[in-house]
Design brief:
about 375 residues; alpha/beta; binds pyridoxal-5'-phosphate
């Protein structure tokens, strides 16, 4: 089945009891037991399993080409389940531009439990130099935030394999529509479902997807079920609903990103544009070889400094100044302010999550905001 078909059918099942075409939302926390103690439909208690979560996990697994998925209440909860599944003392290597919320989580909650290094994973020599006998995990996030750097997933996996190290790929920016890390050999895929999966900036969620049901995966399942950072039946329902349009939303987002980045690249008040789909992107060829499309996140640097960048922000009408990404409405933010005083992000950089408005309106808005 093609991905558009999977998105519509893998998370939906006609209800046996009523023949409703769309699955009902099962709010019940508990399920009736037979006198002999068995559970006729396999459900016992909703923290362990719930019909809506079951369908959500089914569509997530199939979209990423995996065998099982575990849904969480946020992307950070999904990431945390990975770190909690590791033996204490395990060394993990993450990218120096890893999503700051997860990097901070490791640094503050796992200090003294796990060892970690945040490095330039794209530099093969640096990566190899940081591998130790207790390294158990390499975390990959590509394209990265907010510089849209691209990591050669296959290359990292080849290095990891030589040392029996697992590779996890945060696929939030690309989504399985544009990148399928499991097919490149990744051991696990992680998502913030809050972003493109939800797609409407109105729910929080996270997911992990595995290519096989191994011992590590069973440990992750334990963290999910015993830790309990699970999404509600309502959130699962909304996510399944949103995922049905994911392929078409992604195509629309990408179409807009392609045209707006090309407009910005030619604009005299723009210093640079960071988007893997541009021939000027330093890893454009790597992106072309491992991605099925280039996604819709991009950043650009306004000529001048923070003042000029903020002036552009203040003049935009269709781009809302807000963090997060992946919704149908266009968002923009000054990343250096968000990341705080120790940020390495250029002060004239603006990060854009382009929505599904008509591209002519978005270009017109950008044009008036950049006229200074
Ligand atoms: C947002 C995000 C996360 C964290 O997800 P939450 O749903 O906010 O907890 C992790 N990785 C990336 C790339 C993200 O954009």
């Amino acid at each position: 089945m093609k991905i558009e078909t999977i998105a519509i059918h893998a998370g939906n099942k006609t209800d046996d009891a009523t023949k409703a075409v769309i699955q009902p939302i099962v709010m019940s926390t508990t399920f009736e037991r037979e006198v002999d103690g068995s559970y006729a439909k396999g459900y016992i208690y909703s923290r362990a399993a719930n019909p809506n979560r079951h369908l959500l996990e089914n569509v997530l697994a199939q979209l990423e080409g995996g065998v099982e998925a575990a849904a969480f209440s946020s992307g950070n909860a999904a990431g945390m389940a990975v770190f909690q599944s590791l033996k204490p003392g395990t060394h993990i290597i993450g990218p120096d531009d890893m999503y700051h919320g997860l990097r901070n989580q490791i640094k503050s909650l796992f200090a003294g439990i796990l060892e970690f290094d945040f490095i330039d994973v794209n530099d093969e020599a640096v990566l190899k130099a940081h591998i130790k006998s207790n390294t158990g995990l390499i975390w990959v996030e590509t394209p990265s935030n907010p510089l849209l750097k691209v990591t050669d997933i296959k290359n990292v996996i080849a290095i990891a394999r030589q040392h029996d190290i697992k590779v996890v790929c945060d696929n939030t920016f690309a989504t399985p529509i544009f990148q399928q890390p499991l097919s490149l050999g990744a051991d696990l895929v992680m998502h913030s479902s809050t972003k493109y999966f939800g797609g409407h900036s109105d729910l929080m969620g996270g997911a992990l997807i595995t290519p096989e049901n191994n011992e590590w995966w069973q440990r992750i399942r334990q963290v999910q079920e015993m830790g309990g950072a699970i999404p509600s039946p309502m959130d699962c329902y909304y996510l399944v609903r949103s995922l049905k349009t994911l392929p078409y939303r992604m195509k629309g987002h990408e179409h807009n990103a392609n045209l707006l980045t090309r407009f910005l690249e030619k604009h005299p008040n723009v210093e640079s544009v960071m988007y893997p789909g541009l021939a000027s992107h330093p890893q454009h060829e790597v992106a072309k070889s491992q991605m099925l499309g280039f996604g819709a996140m991009f950043s650009f640097c306004v000529k001048g400094g923070a003042d000029e960048a903020k002036k552009v922000l203040s003049k935009l009408k269709l781009f809302t100044i807000a963090t997060s990404l992946g919704g149908v409405e266009s968002l923009i933010e000054h990343r250096a302010s968000v990341e705080g005083p120790d940020t390495k992000t250029p002060h004239n950089l603006l990060r854009v999550s382009i929505g599904l408005e008509h591209i002519d309106d978005l270009i017109e808005d950008m044009e008036q905001a950049l006229a200074f």
